[in-house]
Structures are given as C-alpha cells and as structure tokens.
Amino acid sequence: MNAPRARAGSLPWPVPAVAGVIGGILLALGQAWGVAALLAGAGLALWHARPVLLALVALGGAAGWASAHAVLTRPNTLTPWFGAQVTVQGEWDGQFLTLRDPPARLTLAPKPTQGPGRLRVSGRLLAPEGRRTPGGFDQAAWFRAQGGLLSVTPGGALVGARVREFQPQGGLRGWFRRGLTTGLTERQGALMQAIELGDRGDISREQFSEGEAVRDAFARAGLAHLMALSGQNVAILTGALILLLTRLGAAPAWRFGLPVGLLGPYLLLVQSSASITRAVLMGGAVLLALALGRGRPDPLGVIALAALACLLLFPLWLTDVGFQLSFLAVLALTQSERVAGLLPGRWPRWLRLGLAATLLAEAGTLPVIAGTFGQVPLVGLPANLLAEGLMAALVPLGFLAGLLGPLALPLNVVNGVLADALLLVARTFGHAPVLNWGQVGVGGFLAYGAAVLAGWLWLLGRVRAPAALGTWLACLLLTTLPGRLHPAREVVFLDVGQGDSTLIRLPHLTVLVDAGGSVGSDYDVGAHTVVPTLRALGVRTLDVLVATHADTDHIEGAASVLRQLPVGEVWIGQRKTDDPVLTAVLLAAQERHVPVREVRRGDQVTSDGASLTVLWPAGTAWSTEDNDNSVALRLESRGWRAAFLGDLPDPAEGTLAVGPLNLLKAAHHGSRHSSSAAFLAQVTPPDTVISVGRNTYGHPHPDVLARLAQAHSRAWRTDQLGTIRWPVP
C-alpha cells in the first residue's frame, strides 16, 4: 500500500501553529471557541497529511494558554490605592501614564491638554470598568489587551486629573514631534502627529465646527484607519527608501537590508500598537527575504508568522479591535490581484489595484467595523482613492519633517497644504450618510463567514457567480429576518453615570427620554455613550426625543444625538431662553430641521397597542426650580404601566394621579426629596429603577431605599447593574 500523499500546495507551518495559539488563548479566556480553533488547526494538518504540523498545533495551544494565563493572573500593583485621592508622576505618552514606583500604567481623565512628557498629576484612582451599555466601551477588557509578557498591563484610571507639573518630552521623540508641528496650525499639527506617530490625543479635541468632530468625520468617511499607524505607513516609508536606494544604484542586499535595519528603531519611535507591530514584522520578513535573495515569501505564511509573534508576546491582543482589523484587512488584501483581474483591462493597473484593495479591505473588516462602531461608511471607496494619493506624499514628507525637527519649517509649508487637503476630503465625505448597524451576534458572523467563503470560491473559479450571489442574498435575508419577525418591545435604562437616559422601543415607535450629561467635564455622553448604545441596539432613527428639563445631567447629550441620528421631533416642557444647555439642544434641532413641541399634561402618542401620555407639566405656571418643571410620562401597554418622572420632587409627584404601576422610574436619581412614602403607597410598584452613578450628592439616599423596601418595591440600580433592559408586554 502506498503512503498517503500530501495535498497539493504546501501549507506554511505558521498557519496551524497560530491556529493552536489562538485556541489556547481563547481557552484561557474561558471561551469555548478555542476548541474550534484547535480543531481547525488540526484539520489543516491532517488535510495536508503532515503529522509534524499536528504537533505544532498542540504546542501552539499550550504556548497560547500559558502566555494568556500569565498576563491574566498578574497582580495589579495599583489595587491598594483604588478609591483614594493620589498624586503620581511618570511619563505621559498621550495614552498612558507610566509610573516607576510602583511599576504601573494608568489612563488620565480628562486627558491633559499638554502633549507627551513627564507629568506630576493628582486625582482619584479608580479600577477600570467593564462594559456598562450595549456597544459601550469595555475599559477593563481594553486594559487587559494592552498588557503583554514583557510589558505592564494598565491597571487603573485617574479621574478628575489635574496636572501639577509638566516637562515636555525630550530626546528623539521630542525632536521628531517638534518637526511635525513647527509652523503648522493646531489642527494640522494634530493630524500630522496622528498620521506619523499614532498619537490621536490632540486630533480627538479638534472640531470642524460645533458638534462636528474631526475624528468623527474621518470615521464617517471610512478614513479612520489613516490615523492609526499600520502597514500603509510602513509600505510608503520603506517604498520611498527603496526607490531612493535603487536610484543610487545600491545592491539588493543594501537596497532591502537597510530598510530592515531601520524598522526596529521606527517601531521604538512611534506609539506601539497591534497594527504597526504586525506591519513591521511582516515588512521585515519580506524585506529580509529579498535582501537574502530568497524572493518574496508566501503571503499567508508571513501573515501567520507575524500573528504568531504578536500573540505569544501580547496574547490578549486577540481581543483588541486594532489587532482584528489589521489582520482581517491584510488577509483580504492577499486577493487584490485576483479582484483587480476582474476589472476592465484598459483601466490603469494602479487604479484597478487601488479599487480592489479598498473593496477587499472594507469587505474583510465589515463585521468588526459594523459590530464595534455601529455604522458602516458608504463612501469609503471614493474617499480612500482621493486620500491615498495625498497620503503617498504626506507620510514620507511628514517623516522627513520629523527628522529635521525645528528645521522643518520650509518643508512644513508643503505639509500644511497636504494636511488641509486631507482634512477637506474627510470633512466633505464625512457629511455623507452612513449605514447604521446593530451588534453582530454569532449568527451574523456565521452568515458573514458563509458569504466570504462563497466569494472566495467564486474568485478561485470553484463556483459560478449565480451560486455565490444566491449565497450572499440568503445570508442577508437570514440576518435581516429575525429583527423583522420579532421587533423589540422594551424599555432600556441606559447607564450614563450620574445622569438619566431611557429608551422606549415599540415596533413602530422609538422614544428617547433624555440623553445624559456630564457636569463639569468635557466628556460628551451623548456622542460616546448614548449614540453607540442606540446603534448597538439597532436603533437607526428616533421618533421622539424628550428633553425633560434644563439640567445638564439629563439633556446635555441630546445635542449630539440630534446631530448623529435622524429624529422625528423633540419634546420639551418649559422653553427656557436663558439656559445654555437647553439652548444648545434647540440649536442642534434647528440645524437638523427637527420640529420642537412644547408638551403639556394630557398630550399622548399611541402605537402598537401602547400609549405614551404626558403627565406633567400642566403649563399654567412655571417654577423657578427646573426640577419642578420636568416632563413626566406614563407608558401603558396591554394592562402594564410604567412611569418616568424626570427630577420631579415629591410634592409634584403626589398631584399626578399616576395610578398603580408595574414599574417606576424613580425621580431625581433616588433623591430623598422624591419617591415619598405617600406616593409609593399610591402607585405600589413592585419594581423601581434608579438611574445613578458615582456622585457626591448621596444618591440614592438611604431614606429612599428604606421607603422602597417598606413598600415592597425591588430597587434596580444602573450603578450596580449597568444598563437595564425591561420587556414591555
């Protein structure tokens, strides 16, 4: 009997090895998907009839588990100081403050307006928080993902941070940063630092106009990747250097070897991330092979080798969005030649490759982009074609300016023009509509995988176009139908910290009552908490946005909601003309041509067997206290009743004649001046939700909690439970 022959086509050994590493990391994280990754690696080894690859899968699994376990079980040196007011000093890189004693890294909130350098800063040290809202930021998981075997995992957040001393960054990085910004405007300099160093701290504060953040414009235009260092930067810089060396007549060993030697220092210069580390490793492997005369290595093998190195040193990068986007994009780009070959041959090669690369990168990263950011840009193709031409000049010229330091003033005249052109592209295409998307579940990922497999087999000529198209349509239908067949009927109490925001969802009516706010902070709760949550829940439009009263913690975020989501109309009670927060909301409504309605007691909207009724204000007289003028609402559906009372105090509560309730949204975050014993005896709610966060007001007050317990009403608190979702019959 003849021995079994290996399958046609050699499988690079890093591929099954990295499948094993991924499986081991997932198992260390307690995720059963790790078994699937191990089985996939073993299946590849058996398919190619190479037992040594099977051993690599097992070895990779053990190594991945051990690496992840070591990072996950490392003690946090900051734990003893959680909750304390502290003063610390260390090196600030724009993202983390690195301390020497104890050895630790932490974030600062708000971020200092000063650039990177040595800081002495005070504030309250808090433990990182997990995800508090659907689609929200999981700070604890992100912190874990930034740690590695040889680097300290960020351990906490310093809130209310106040800079006491600052010393600007010196050395090569300080020189380079001065070269990037000298002679440029603040916005141009912020963009150059993001493009060349990956430092997005300054650009995050830049706005084209009120409510039009520069970073949001880049994201809506599909250009967010330009501000994250990646393979594009490495390719442009090494390509420019290779072209220069070729013109000088350098031998291949020098032509490709010198760029390899410079990649290491480049990685130390810029802000380290998963995407730039992957790019440096891959670029180094390819250039080294060319320098040694070995030709271009197998792309899949190089990608797997880079992933292997990254994950063994930084195992939890596997959960990092930047890592996922970087590797998904580069995997998709391996098919660029095939896709370009399908385009008309009379088109220039650079155009065909550019179109193919952009389409593939967008398709390859689609589920992560949609599920993480809640929206998919629709103009990414033309925006990227224009932006890539500018980047081809801006990246090498900007890098040269950085090397020149303060002497870069003449060169930055050109860089300023290029930066403005790139900003113009982002702003122009950033006004285009986007496709809002909800969270992507297991079914969505499986459907996407089936669609990708069908497309790949079509590219290989294994299936016909009608079969691939039919698969895509079937996957689209299967992922769309569940939401259509079973539309949501629920009330969602969003965790917006010490604030208020409630979403009422019926099949044909979506109402947002307040949108949170952050008193004394520059954090935009509407843009960074409420809107991502709505997108994650699949909310694409709002029929009504209710601004209950002119308190920052209730309505400050409403302006961002109005600017980022279509809204049918805005409901308000008292139209104050001297309140800056309410004025900002009304101005945003005016900009978006959203009608504003002053509601009064008895106003009502009905839909899907439910009614939403205004209980307050009566509108006959206004109090000098904003809380007394709060819009109060009652939702009734098939005999089930809930009330949402804004910040009404207990005297006003007693005049509402609410009637018995199944669910009460406690007024004023559980203030002792609301939810009186008499009112609770009147409405007898078995359940009460309290929207509250960290505060110095004593909310919820112990007296209120005692009154709820005496009334046999169970208290549900957003500060303890995060976002609370309540079904509506």
UniProtKB/TrEMBL annotation:
Q: How does it sit in the membrane?
A: Multi-pass membrane protein
What are the subcellular locations of this protein?
Cell membrane
Task: Output the InterPro entries linked to this UniProt entry.
Answer: ComA-like_MBL, ComEC_N, Competence_ComEC/Rec2, Competence_DNA_uptake, Metallo-B-lactamas, RibonucZ/Hydroxyglut_hydro
Q: Is the keyword Transmembrane assigned to this protein? A: yes
Per UniProt, the keywords (alphabetical) are: Cell membrane, Membrane, Transmembrane, Transmembrane helix
Q: Name one Pfam family in it.
A: Competence
Metallo-beta-lactamase domain location, by residue?
498-694
Q: Where are the transmembrane segments?
A: 21-46, 52-72, 234-254, 266-292, 299-317, 390-409, 440-460, 467-485
Superkingdom assignment? Bacteria
Major site of localization recorded for this protein: membrane
User: Has UniProt tagged this entry with the keyword Flavoprotein?
Assistant: no
Q: Which NCBIfam families match?
A: ComEC_N-term, ComEC_Rec2
Q: What is this protein called?
A: Competence protein ComEC
Query: What is the native source organism of this protein?
Result: Deinococcus actinosclerus
